[in-house]
Automatic annotation (TrEMBL):
PROSITE patterns: PROKAR_LIPOPROTEIN (PS51257). This is Lipoprotein. Residues 1-24 form the signal peptide. The keyword Signal applies. The lineage of its organism: Bacteria, Bacillati, Actinomycetota, Actinomycetes, Kitasatosporales. Keywords: Signal. The keyword Signal applies.
Length: 151
């Protein structure tokens, strides 16, 4: 009986670590590869007129032409929601994203109004919060950041 209890505890711990601790910090597409940010034809100075971002774009630097737009959608869940996107810098101005927000999702849209650099950030829990007493929780946070250069 003791061996079975120990084995079950070890198996449960392994599953928790596999589900929470091994997350790479980026979401991937159906093929398991991060996808490149979608953008339209180049605008002024070789920068895109439209940049569309998602969770897999974390850590990237993108360039958008002055007058262009940056749109993003971070798909989350009720149990692992994204925080609202924060923009540090004055080169982007928030505009109406124009799309429906699902529970846990963070969306934003910006117009490039001046040359400069803006850092966009958000975060969410790596693991869902326990729903019952005695369940294990993790304190990990998935951070998302993209640097936007406006030219």
């Amino acid at each position: 009986m003791r061996r079975t209890t120990t084995s079950l505890a070890l198996a449960a711990a392994a599953l928790l670590l596999a589900g929470c601790g091994s997350h790479s910090g980026t979401d991937t597409g159906s093929a398991g590869k991060p996808s490149a940010p979608a953008s339209s034809a180049p605008g002024k100075g070789g920068c895109a007129a439209l940049v569309q971002l998602k969770a897999a774009d974390s850590g990237r630097t993108v360039c958008v032409a002055k007058g262009g737009e940056v749109r993003l959608a971070l798909d989350g869940t009720k149990s692992r929601p994204w925080k609202p996107v924060a923009a540090a810098g004055t080169a982007l101005k928030g505009i109406n994203a124009g799309f429906v927000i699902q529970p846990g999702q963070a969306t934003a849209a910006y117009q490039a109004v001046a040359p400069g650099t803006v850092k966009l950030t958000s975060s969410r829990p790596l693991c869902a919060q326990p729903t019952a007493s005695g369940q294990v929780s993790c304190k990990g946070i998935q951070e998302w950041t993209v640097t936007v250069n406006v030219r």
